[in-house]
Write a structure and sequence with these properties.
Blueprint: H1 21-24, H2 29-32, H3 37-42, E1 45-52, E2 55-60, E3 63-67, E4 78-80, E5 90-91, E6 97-101, E7 109-114, E8 118-124, H4 131-144, E9 147-153, H5 162-169, E10 177-179, H6 186-190, E11 200-205, H7 211-219, E12 244-247, E13 253-256, H8 269-275, H9 277-283, H10 300-306, H11 312-357
Parallel strand pairs: 8-9, 8-11, 9-10, 11-13
Antiparallel strand pairs: 1-2, 1-4, 2-3, 4-5, 6-7, 12-13
Helix pairs in contact: 4-8
Bound molecules: guanosine-5'-diphosphate, magnesium ion (MG) and zinc ion.
Magnesium ion binds near residues 211, 212, 239, 240 and 256.
């Protein structure tokens, strides 16, 4: 047992300092260590709280402004705000970054959010529940360097939530799974361990699972619109259309996100390995380093399937994520290579032009 001896110490309980405005926005040593005292006054730190077409909405100590697009920043980023030249505001090095391959034919990487401490992967105790999707989100969080927590909403609509929780815990022994009713006060209490002062949490998951409802519960308001669910497919319609940070009364920062129809992984090999350590360990024991685990001799993965120690469905999900990640990442590398070649072409053309002028 840990006794509290503070009452016997001189001065009693140590005086607790009020958090500063910046600390309430998530500021801390990871960012403070990147700047010196001078920069702190000439270019005050501000956090990107929303991204609009017209620019970045930033908040700081006594600042709430929209700066024109320019800095390559996303919601959650910290900028050193240059009032004279807002477009040149410096983006501070991130603690974490969530990104995906942008939907559509282009292979651009889209930045989703920066400096998130905990990702709540949200699904519900109904048809939305899907193991493959949970693994995908958890891999994304692991890759981003963020602690994931699985939330199973709508416990009130099911007779027995236990099978859902059990299934969700199979995603990873490093990821807790919690079932809850997203409405009312319950979430603030259940999620208190993760939603502390100065911490930033994000809700990710399909549309209609209760992300905005959870955000409202943490904020203690009904500030964010939620949407009635369509009975036919257990999904809601898209109500949340933009990514925005909100501050809870307790000083936690919350990001509600719109449901992303397509969450394609890119550059997420490590995150995927972290979700499937068993398969990765087997693969390391295959005879050939480039084993495709299809027909090769002495394949440890095929052997594990054979002796029932590996679930073929799990193997199939791993293959799918791996293939997708390889495709998106390779195309990205190719694209970068193309950009480099094009850049060289432009530079040599410019040089030829300036040489001619001489
Ligand atoms: N019964 C019940 N309804 C919920 C729960 N969570 C969300 N809902 C409802 O599901 C619908 C979609 O919720 P919403 O928060 O908009 O989902 P989002 O698209 O993930 O932001 C709304 O009608 C909510 O009231 C829950 O735990 N229990
Ligand atoms: Mg929403
Ligand atoms: Zn193999």
């Amino acid at each position: 047992m840990v006794r509290d001896y503070s009452a016997f110490l001189p001065g009693g309980t140590p005086a607790r300092r009020e958090p500063t405005a910046l600390e309430r926005l998530g500021w801390g040593p990871a960012f403070a260590s990147q700047i010196d005292a001078d920069a702190l006054t000439t270019t005050p730190p501000v956090r990107v709280v929303a991204v609009h077409r017209s620019g970045l909405q930033v908040a700081g100590d006594g600042t709430l402004e929209t700066i024109p697009p320019g800095p390559e920043a996303t919601v959650g980023d910290w900028l050193l705000y240059d009032r004279e030249r807002p477009r040149s505001s410096r983006v501070l090095e991130r603690k974490s970054l969530i990104k995906r391959r942008a939907p559509g034919t282009g292979r651009e990487v889209q930045l989703i959010a920066a400096n998130i401490d905990t990702v709540f992967v949200v699904t519900s105790c109904n048809q939305d529940f899907n193991l493959a999707r949970l693994e995908r989100y958890v891999a994304l969080a692991f890759e981003a360097g963020i602690e994931p927590v699985i939330l199973l909403t709508k416990v009130d609509l099911t007779d027995d939530a236990a099978p859902y929780v059990e299934e969700a815990r199979k995603v990873s022994d490093r990821v807790p799974a919690v079932a809850l009713d997203a409405r009312a006060e319950e979430p603030a209490e259940t999620l208190a361990d993760w939603c502390k002062l100065g911490r930033t949490v994000a809700f990710l998951g399909s549309s209609g699972v209760g992300k905005s409802t959870l955000t409202n519960a943490l904020l203690g308001t009904q500030a964010i619109a939620t949407q009635g669910i369509r009975e036919d497919d257990a999904r809601g319609r898209h109500t949340t259309t933009r990514r925005e940070l909100h501050a809870t009364p307790g000083g936690c920062i919350v990001l509600d996100t719109p449901g992303m129809r397509e969450l394609q992984l890119t550059d997420a090999a490590t995150g995927i390995s972290d979700v499937f350590p068993d398969i990765e360990a087997l693969a390391a024991r295959c005879r050939f380093a480039d084993c495709r685990h299809k027909t090769e001799p002495d394949c440890a993965i095929l052997a594990a399937i054979e002796d029932d120690s590996l679930d073929p469905a799990r193997l199939a999900r791993w293959r799918k994520l791996q293939a997708e990640d390889a495709f998106n990442s390779a195309s990205l590398a190719e694209r970068r290579e193309k950009d480099r070649t094009f850049g060289k072409l432009v530079r040599s053309a410019m040089k030829a032009k300036s040489d001619r002028k001489r």
